[in-house]
Every structure is written in structure tokens, then in C-alpha cells.
Amino acid sequence: MAKDLKTDVLTGKALLKKVKELEHLSKEEKAKACGYYTLTKAGVVRVNMMKFLNALIDAEGIQLDSTQSSNGRGGRSASYRITVQSNGNLLIGSAYTKQMGLKPGDEFEISLGRKHIRLKQLDSDDSEFDEEE
């Protein structure tokens, strides 16, 4: 009986259109009508709300992950400037380390210049990153 309900999983514009058509239904009913459910071995319908909501977010073009799209949406972007903190530390944020592909435990050699800091990655011969200050 419940197996007859299964439809193709909608994504993108088709998903948005269907959700607008079903505005009078509950969110669980909308998710089920858009194909975001599974049947258990006992034949019970389980609505996959997280997959449904994530598909809606993707269909709207909202970027929640740290990788940003070029349309300017989603959080702060790297300014390529840092300020010495009140405790004297310089903090290089995760936006920069992710962009550089760094992982926890990566080591660098620090060379100090008059107004610059040069970081040379130890496990790589020719990877150098400058942080001007």
C-alpha cells in the first residue's frame, strides 16, 4: 500500500515548484510528496526531513558549507589582512588554512623580515607563503 506512494526525488527548480504547489500541506507531507521518504522493512513510511531541507537549501542556491560560490553569498570572505591581537599574537584564520590545503599538524619554518613574516612548509621543498604585516 505505501509502496504506491513512492515518487522520484525532486531537486532544483522542480522541487521549489512542487513545494509552492503544496503550500497548504505540512512540511512532512511536502517532503513525502517530493520523494523524501523511505519504507522500513515493516512497511512504515519514514520521512527524510534532513535530506528534504538540504535539497531545498541547495535549490535556493544558499551555500552553507565553507566552500563559497562566486555569487557573493555565504559568510565573510578572506580579506588577506590580519591585525596583531592585544596579547601580541597573529592569528591566521581557517579561511586561509583551508584555501592553502593545510591540515592539523602541518609544520612551517618562520623567517622574520623587517615588516614581513615568511612561512616555509617543512615537508615541501618549494611551498612558501608570505604574510605581510
TrEMBL record:
Gene Ontology cellular-component terms listed: protein-DNA complex
Keyword list, A-Z: DNA-binding
GO molecular function, one term: DNA-binding transcription repressor activity
Span of domain SpoVT-AbrB: 79-124
Pfam families: AbrB-like (PF14250)
InterPro entries, per the entry: AbrB-like, SpoVT-AbrB_dom
Database matches in PROSITE patterns: SPOVT_ABRB (PS51740)
Protein name (record): AbrB family transcriptional regulator
Organism of origin: Vasconcelosia minhoensis LEGE 07310
Source lineage: Bacteria, Bacillati, Cyanobacteriota, Cyanophyceae, Nodosilineales
